[in-house]
Amino acid sequence: xxxxxxxxxxxxxxxxxxxxxxxxxxxxxxxxxxxxxxxxxxxxxxxxxxxxxxxxxxxxxxxxxxxxxxxxxxxxxxxxxxxxxxxxxxxxxxxxxxxxxxxxxxxxxxxxxxxxxxxxxxxxxxxxxxxxxxxxxxxxxxxxxxxxxxxxxxxxxxxxxxxxxxxxxxxxxxxxxxxxxxxxxxxxxxxxxxxxxxxxxxxxxxxxxxxxxxxxxxxxxxxxxxxxxxxxxxxxxxxxxxxxxxxxxxxxxxxxxxxxxxxxxxxxxxxxxxxxxxxxxxxxxxxxx
Length: 289
Prior knowledge:
Blueprint: E1 6-11, E2 18-26, E3 30-33, E4 38-45, E5 48-52, E6 55-59, E7 64-67, E8 73-77, E9 83-90, H1 92-103, E10 116-117, H2 120-133, H3 140-158, H4 172-184, H5 192-199, H6 203-214, H7 218-235, H8 240-247, H9 252-263, H10 267-274, H11 284-288
Helix pairs in contact: 1-3, 2-3, 4-5, 4-7, 7-8, 7-9, 8-9
């Protein structure tokens, strides 16, 4: 029977220095080796066995594994059979930069103190990121924001010497600038770097403070804003595909997906059921300010 073993490598254009790797039905044994990058991964199916200088670690489904640059190790599937996994190969300079942004101090490097751990939130976000990564039409801001948040949480949870989170205050004026920028430029392909520049804050602090101030992350606020604008266009008689492109969604299906999550119904059903009474309803700004 032909093997289904497959390993794919994907560079991330929105964050140089990070590569995403997905292994499916891997039964191959990888002899002792090391990487120049840091590796953070999660097992999806089966058991991954990592032999390292301190012994052997068995990572079960949903478990996380960490390897430092230069750490010699060997990998294999457990006796249960082939396993599947997803991992991020991260340039040490990227981890140091994220750690520096967290503390607002220069951090020379990040070193992981364990090979194997479990963390429900990180495992969930790991899966979310890779699912989003496989969608070529998913907005870059969503992917970038989730990856920055994931790397930040990994560093704070598992670095041997985690950075202390710098207290930067409420930054209400900066958060208002970001909110207004999203409102004005919602139809454009916004990036986390752009919004961070508007706020004059690091991506880490921007995401934390914006969520604290407005109850949702910048990328979620952008999605809600686009839905609100699409709702207005639909009320004026625009077609669904036309409205989707006009507000910044990549296509009609993405508008439909987010519209239903935010409004509770599909754009088509909204037009059919509510268009005649829309003038009596609250304007979009009322819902998404």
